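Incident log, structure service

09:12 report received: a user says their structure output differs between two submissions of the same chain.
09:20 pulled the input from the user's history:
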Amino acid sequence: MGNQTLIMEFIFLGFSNHPNLQILFFLVFLVIYTVTLLGNTLILTLTRSDPTLHTPMYFFLGNLSFLDICYTSATMPVMLLNFFRSTKTISYAGCIAQLFFLITCTGTECVLLAVMAYDRYVAICSPLNYSSIMSKKLCVQLAAFSWLCGLVNSLVHTLLTSAVVICKSNLLSHFFCDVPLLLKLSCSETYVNEAVLHLASALIGLSPCLFTVVSYGHIICAILKIRSSQGRFKAFSTCTSHLIVVVIFYSTSNFNYNRPSSGYSLDIDTLVSSLYCIVTPMLNPVIYSLRNKEVKGALKRMGRKHFASVAKSRGREGALQ
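09:34 re-ran on a clean worker, output below:
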């Protein structure tokens, strides 16, 4: 345990290969982070304030937006600050905390996307019973279950990882803390950690993915049975945005964690991880805003209310003058 206390901080190697581009990197990721926060906050505000969006689909979308805000905020502030440092560091306690929030958000999103797929399955395959099945109580329970899965999974990984003796090095070939990276630096046995990682990948990663695939298999079969092309298009359009988000999330995460360990440079690793951890949360609100008529309608109504309130306040100021 003495060797473990020597590691007081870790040094991130991600983005360190291009010291002359640090300011450019900072500006690019600051814009991405800002867009992510604004976009997801806007979706979260719309789903809570607009009565037309008080449905199960948008209740889960609000959870997804809040999740993406937490997800990026776990890594981006530290990364942005490190662009102004010659040595990009994070404390041991900060690394463990970052690990906890990242695993919580990742696990929760896996389960939540499966829950959203189930919501679309009920809406298309059993539309007459949709309101009775997807009650407000069930929606809250499903959302709570998603967060509970993420939290329990994260607690297990965080506790096991914090018990590992790290003494080989404090260099992380990444821009955030991750369990596999820390296990590589361990001088103690990690077979329990690795076994739990594989089990969690099956329960929290693979199982929701397979559930989503099966749900969309039933959805596609139900859509193909609709006689009119207009009816088929309308039915499929209700789940297009979610399907795009699912494809992007699982394709980037699969490429990030299941690519060969050899044959990739630090720059490629950093780029792939950036797509998975940073770009994807930014794209989610964009996809739902551009692909969804109800969200676009809510945006227009919010804009009209804003301009009306501004005009009203200016009218009152003019009358007082």
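09:41 both user submissions now match this output. Likely a transient worker issue. Closing.
09:42 reviewer note: The CA atoms of residues 142 and 172 lie 36 Å apart. The longest strand covers residues 9-12.
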